[in-house]
From TrEMBL:
<keyword id="KW-0678">Repressor</keyword>
<keyword id="KW-0805">Transcription regulation</keyword>
<dbReference type="InterPro" id="IPR000551">
    <property type="entry name" value="MerR-type_HTH_dom"/>
</dbReference>
<protein>
    <submittedName>
        <fullName>DNA-binding transcriptional regulator, MerR family</fullName>
    </submittedName>
</protein>
<dbReference type="GO" id="GO:0003677">
    <property type="term" value="F:DNA binding"/>
</dbReference>
<dbReference type="GO" id="GO:0003700">
    <property type="term" value="F:DNA-binding transcription factor activity"/>
</dbReference>
<dbReference type="Pfam" id="PF13411">
    <property type="entry name" value="MerR_1"/>
</dbReference>
<keyword id="KW-0804">Transcription</keyword>
<feature type="domain" description="HTH merR-type">
    <location>
        <begin position="8"/>
        <end position="77"/>
    </location>
</feature>
<dbReference type="InterPro" id="IPR047057">
    <property type="entry name" value="MerR_fam"/>
</dbReference>
<dbReference type="InterPro" id="IPR009061">
    <property type="entry name" value="DNA-bd_dom_put_sf"/>
</dbReference>
<keyword id="KW-0238">DNA-binding</keyword>
<dbReference type="InterPro" id="IPR011256">
    <property type="entry name" value="Reg_factor_effector_dom_sf"/>
</dbReference>
Length: 267
């Protein structure tokens, strides 16, 4: 090796310093993305340490999901404008991924909370509870049959790139609950870290029971009767969580339902 090559780096050392595997360095060489500065008499690839900066840029771009074709084009037509445009578009993509991951994390936290809270619940159960605010996404006001509306809601979520991870529920207004209109929900919701609407904090009558869905009307009648017998005053919406994620009776079609009715707090 002559003196000019004394400060050059072998492909093995360059791979170690750049955290790019040797096969990938050979691939990048063939693609013209990151070529060695010289090949010695034994055809060994040798790199200049200053090429590490380019290697880091390639690794950074690949981690952002930039394609080989885009990277090649970037290095062939390098400019501040092209770099800004390329990286800016992928920053937007990363922000979307972060948004989706936050929603997924929130969804998993709901699953864990449900399992911990309800794994030993004895039903049927009535309880006055104080709820914290929860973020949700809402459907449009329901004008058609419920099943069509649920499907339309989920399709709208997909169309508008709203990340959906379950935890769907139904909403009945104060008026619907008072007049026992339980055949069709007023709104559909799902819980979301980034939901634009909310379940208001406050005092609720909470009813828990297991059902296969065929007797939900009777369950609402149970809630209505309890409210009348205990002289409670409905003050807002009723929220139905069914099925409560992660909670079911083994080897049966019964899942846990929670009906939460906003009530006026008594002194």
């Amino acid at each position: 090796m002559d003196k000019e090559q004394d400060n050059l780096i072998s492909i093995s050392e360059f791979a170690e310093l750049s955290s790019i595997t040797r096969p990938n360095l050979i691939f990048y060489d063939r693609e013209g993305i990151l070529k060695p500065v010289v090949r010695n008499s034994n055809r060994y690839r040798l790199y200049d340490y200053k090429q590490l900066d380019q290697a880091y840029v390639i690794t950074f771009m690949r981690s952002m999901g930039v394609s080989i074709k885009e990277i090649k084009s970037y290095f062939q037509n390098r400019s501040a404008e092209s770099a800004y445009e390329l990286l800016g578009s992928h920053v937007t993509l990363i922000e979307k991924q972060i948004y989706n991951l936050e929603n997924l994390k929130h969804s998993m936290e709901i699953y864990l909370h449900n399992i911990q809270q309800f794994k030993h619940v004895v039903t049927p159960k009535f309880e006055i509870v104080h709820k914290a605010k929860e973020h949700i996404n809402l459907s449009p006001v329901i004008l058609s049959e419920e099943i069509d509306t649920v499907l339309d809601f989920l399709r709208a979520c997909k169309k508008n790139d709203i990340d959906y991870h379950g935890h769907t529920g139904r909403i009945f207004t104060k008026n619907s609950m008072i007049h026992k209109k339980w055949d069709k929900a007023d709104r559909i919701f799902f819980k979301s870290y980034s939901g634009k609407n909310e379940i208001k904090r406050g005092t609720y009558l909470e009813y828990l029971d297991y059902t296969d869905g065929s007797d939900i009307g009777q369950l609402y009648q149970n809630v209505y009767d309890y409210i009348q017998e205990n002289r409670l005053e409905i003050s807002g919406n009723t929220y139905e969580d069914y099925p409560i994620s992660g909670i079911s009776i083994r080897n049966s079609g019964n899942h846990l339902i929670r009906i939460s009715v906003a009530i006026k707090e008594t002194d």
